[in-house]
Amino acid sequence: MMTRNSPTQRWLTLATSWMRVATLRTLSKVYGPVFTVYFGMKPTVVLHGYEAVKEALIDLGEEFSRRGSFPVIERNVKGHGIVFSNGKTWKETRRFSLMTLRNFGMGKRSIEDRVQEEARCLVEELRKTNGLPCDPTFILGCAPCNVICSIIFQNRFDYKDQTFLNLMKTINENIKILGSPWIQVLNIFPVLLDFFPWSYSYKKLYTNTAYVKNYVLEKTREHQASLDINNPRDFIDCFLIKMEQEKHNHQSEYTFENLTITVSDLFGAGTETTSTTLRYGLLLLLKHPEVTAKIQEEIDRVIGRHRSPCMQDRTHMPYMDAVLHEIQRYIDLAPMSVPHAVNCDVKFRNYLIPKGTDILTSLTSVLHDDKEFPNPEVFDPGHFLDENGNFRKSDYFMAFSAGKRVCVGEGLARMELFLFLTTILQTFTLKSVVDPKDLDTTPAVTGIANVPPPYQLCFIPV
């Protein structure tokens, strides 16, 4: 990876688990912000700290924009979609998806209208708990998944619809499988895929991916039969229109295969990340009732109780804005993000990184930087407020990563988090079933993603 004379080059073989945050922190103290580890026989460069991460992902964004190796998924997606594609496919698919999400003033409803509608459905579903203790995991998963379904398929699902439940189940299972030790071993030693192609985890991942692809193809055929090129209804319609426009281009990226993988990417990234953040956020608000009380005072003052929150309200709610940022900073959802790689030989801080080398960026080291965020291990909305109580932006807020590979759904996720949480807190008082001091906010699972521990709460109507 780096030149042999590099004083910070050290080799470390990690065969059965994802890089631990504590391990990286320890190594960075010894070897600096740029060092090499080995996954099996494969060298990987780790970037630790804001300056190194910013220099790579933003200042040298094009050079570091390649997606890193993920063999288990690569065999399923075959270079298609947004998350794990590269080159022309990635650039064209990402550009199209961003444009479609940003300009979704299709038909009669914008994306904000759809999220507001789902927020209303969400609180109605929470009312059905009748103030009794409940685990919010399922309901909080339904809401963002339904927003994605609305954007892709035009319509939302009832929370008890079996097709909807099946889609959510496959997404949830795949996220768990991708974080399992066996899949990590297969990623580190991909040759094992040739010897164990039908191991339970890989077979289940393959089956679930095929299920989603077949469902998308089925819906695509229905869309083709009723397509009006002058009135696109959703993401699939927009993609089909591009396919028609480029039907004579044999190098076109607009194919059925790319459509199915792109939609699968939107499902996975748009459902689990947002629902996990919502779930973790409610746990933190239970743990810190004084924060919840200040949010609800701000809601009463800015919005009141008789109209739905809208995105314009956010500019008048600095405390809520700070809380949302602090939730994402504190939980550190994706500690290492998804692996990057360099597109070409790169000279980086006097080191030579050869083309194709995988790059791991420690987002934890940025979000928990103690110079930017005093006492970073403490949940404190003050990290994003100035001395006058105004919202304070921070370049260190990289919860969605940064640079060319920043999350394509960042704008949608920010909207969902604000509208869902604000609507919940406008409608309910949160009540913990145990003393808030006894609530544990330590992640139950730490690896590719930080997952909160299971808990119960009561939603008491205001």
TrEMBL record:
SUPFAM superfamilies: Cytochrome P450 (SSF48264). Its EC number is 1.14.14.-. It comes from the Eukaryota. It is an enzyme of class 1 (oxidoreductase). Its cofactor is heme. Heme binds at C407. Keywords: Endoplasmic reticulum, Heme, Iron, Membrane, Metal-binding, Microsome, Monooxygenase, Oxidoreductase. The keyword ATP-binding does not apply. Its main location: endoplasmic reticulum. GO terms for cellular component: endoplasmic reticulum membrane. InterPro entries: Cyt_P450, Cyt_P450_CS, Cyt_P450_E_grp-I, Cyt_P450_E_grp-I_CYP2D-like, Cyt_P450_sf, Cytochrome_P450_fam2. It is found in: Endoplasmic reticulum membrane; Microsome membrane. GO terms for molecular function: heme binding; iron ion binding; oxidoreductase activity, acting on paired donors, with incorporation or reduction of molecular oxygen, reduced flavin or flavoprotein as one donor, and incorporation of one atom of oxygen. Belongs to the cytochrome P450 family. Cytochromes P450 are a group of heme-thiolate monooxygenases. In liver microsomes, this enzyme is involved in an NADPH-dependent electron transport pathway. It oxidizes a variety of structurally unrelated compounds, including steroids, fatty acids, and xenobiotics. This is Cytochrome P450. It comes from Bos taurus. The gene is CYP2C87.
